[in-house]
Specification:
alpha/beta, about 15% strand, Glucose Oxidase, domain 1, eight-stranded parallel beta barrel, eight-stranded mixed beta sheet, Enzyme I, Chain A, domain 2, TIM Barrel, binds phosphoenolpyruvate, binds magnesium ion
Amino acid sequence: MVDRLHKGEKILRGIPVSAGVCRGKLLVLDKQRQVVTRQDLSESEAGEEVNRLQRALVTTRHQILEVQHKLAENIGAEQASIFDAHLMVLEDPALIDEAVRVIQSEKVNAEFAFHAVSERYALALSKVDDEYLRERVSDMRDVTGRVINNLQGRTDEVDLRHLSEPCIIIAHDLTPSRTAQLDRQNVLGFATDVGSKTSHTAIMARSLRIPAVVGLKTASDELENGEYALLDGFNGVIILNPTDQTLFEYGQLIRKQVTLEEKLRDTISQPAVTLDNHRVLLSANIEQAADAASATASGAEGVGLFRTEYLFINRDSPPTEEEQYQSYRQVAAALKPHPVVIRTLDLGGDKFLSHLHVPTEMNPFLGWRAIRFCLQQRDVFGAQLRAILRASVEGNVKMMYPMISGLDELNQANALLAEFKAELRQQNVPFDDKLEVGVMIEIPSAALVADSLARRSRFFSIGTNDLIQYSLAVDRMNEKIAHLYEPTHPAILRLIKNTVDAAHAHKVWVSVCGEMAGDPVLAPLLIGLGVDELSAAPPLLAQVKYLIRRLKVTDTRQLAEFALTCESPTEILGRCQELAQRAAPSLFER
Ligand code: PEP
Ligand code: MG
């Protein structure tokens, strides 16, 4: 469909990450990234420049007061008080006097002077051995950005939570926290320059059912606000100025999808069982308590992965134990008697939280992430463990640790768990003492020592998203090397096989909760490798089940046997595609 272009159209190709087609006006974010350049001025110009800075400071102050006022009305005075620190920056005489002095003595433009002075302050603050002062660095930079926007006559950043009309968002990058904020009513779809299929932004798009394309490289530079385009999340393209012919062709594709969705809806209440009677457990991946409803509606037989870090995102302080308990309890009760696997905090990588003060790292995916962070942040981890334990009496709750690299980390985490259990016992707070604890297998070292981890775990959940990035040394966020991110690489399949064999030898259950599990081309291979459970975003479950019901487990085992002896990822992928297309051709009509 996207091979033939019609006159007047322009096509941009990227990576399809969330199915669906939409068309509409583009809203291009980050169009004018802030650039501060030095301009040399005459004596008289420098005088006027000081006035310009003062006007910008006044405007910024009004803007902040207005935001603060709105926030106090809508959310509460406590949240609004965070802007007090911003106002203090604007009123700091030392900072302002110094900026004025630079303008006058060096005869430079106001934005250059204010930026230079404020950066000097921020740098000095970041080195101070006082946590409160270090926290002021981001306030400083935030306010400076606003002042410079005003000096350059640019409007504030778009509020993605409240858009005035339906549009397709184009951005250089969208962080998972910004994606989580998208105004679902008005965002038709989105596209970014960077990213790949397993970046958390892509994962969010799939669970929010927003058509999305990433890895478009230069889209945010090439496209303009207000242009009209069609976004095709099946094939990973944006077509600018689509002709009537193109719109007609896409209309046909959409009709086919509607027919397919009707068929898929019928499978929701049916069991995930192959033609030769092999049962596969299908569970849902969720990001917040509110997703419990879509998990149940999708026919999931439980939650295989609750990514709890999203409870920590888009707020100014970590959620309290009580808030977490309420969320976990809500999901456990909604899914009861089905299991809910709560994953402890997997902060880091592409999921940053400003309030937990995680410093910027050279290699965040190899850094202070997930269980490594939790083992050193006893208060944060403890609040979460207590909340999970308390919720465990409300349903069928299980818990797992992310990013375990070996036995030591598992033992340390379990030791802390035992301490918090003892604390709850002492306080007479009820919890399920037999709460099952599992381990995510997403680091190659964990897959290789799966036998010793299996002796101390009740279940494994293979996180293929990270397992692939770490095994193949391919950053899961980087669109330039996305072609090297190969789930069918023999090394990955051997690691999965090793994990499954070690687990089954110790009667340990194995799930896969990475994106491979929700991909109808790859799910049969996982079943053939002996995986017991597949866990994926609710919108993906129906198609996986539809396929399972048209497959024979013997065929999936043959596929896995072939894959384990084949040396070529492409050939293995080809065989996977053949099997899936033969079993359920209508899933692949695009
Ligand atoms: C994974 O790594 O496969 C996984 C499920 O965890 P996340 O995508 O949240 O890193
Ligand atoms: Mg992971």
